[in-house]
């Protein structure tokens, strides 16, 4: 499992704390009435009541999840700007080697390893990738 997968799991997993609603009782099919038209080839058979499609999952509000995590830890994290603080907030390795791995995984080639330029590019790449994977991320964190 790559470092980005761990980041995503920590953020998206934390948002799934609410229990899923109980499945609804299946609808009973409409009664079939035989009126002779069932033998007519020009009359379509009655439609069965298929199960309604499952609703699409709500996007995870990344900013709200991370803000709540930061608040729970004392609110002193600069996760909005710092890849190191973001990784620390998620209790993940924030070392230079870990950030090199993340840069390779996300194909980030900005600046030298460990430079401010690369760290900023990594942070934005993580936020963009979270948005691509179902996260609701404010534009100012992606651009």
How would you portray this structure in words?
The protein is an all-alpha fold. It has a domain at 3-15 and 59-142. The protein is built from 6 helices and 2 strands, in the order αβααααβα. It has helices spanning 3-14, 62-72, 83-89, 96-106, 116-132, 139-142, and strands at 60-61, 135-136. Strands 1-2 form a two-stranded parallel ribbon. The model is unreliable at 17-21 (pLDDT under 50).
- Derived from helix and strand composition plus strand pairing, the structural class reads mainly alpha
Strand order of the largest sheet: 1-2
Number of strands: 2
Q: Main beta sheet, described?
A: 2 strands, parallel
Supply Rg: 24 Å
Can you give the mean pLDDT?
84
Quaternary form: single chain
Report, as a whole number of angstroms, the end-to-end distance. 26 Å
| Secondary-structure element pattern, one letter each | HEHHHHEH
Helical residue percent?
40-55%
Strand content: under 5%
| Principal-axis shape | elongated
Unreliable segments of 5+ consecutive residues: 17-21
Query: What is the count of DSSP helices, taking H or I runs of 4+ residues?
Result: 6
Sum this structure up briefly:
With 143 residues, this protein is mainly α. It is built from 6 helices and 2 strands; from the N terminus they run αβααααβα.
What structural keywords apply?
mainly alpha; 43% helix; two-stranded parallel sheet; 143 residues
Give the SSE layout:
Elements: H1 3-14, E1 60-61, H2 62-72, H3 83-89, H4 96-106, H5 116-132, E2 135-136, H6 139-142
Parallel strand pairs: 1-2
Helix pairs in contact: 4-5
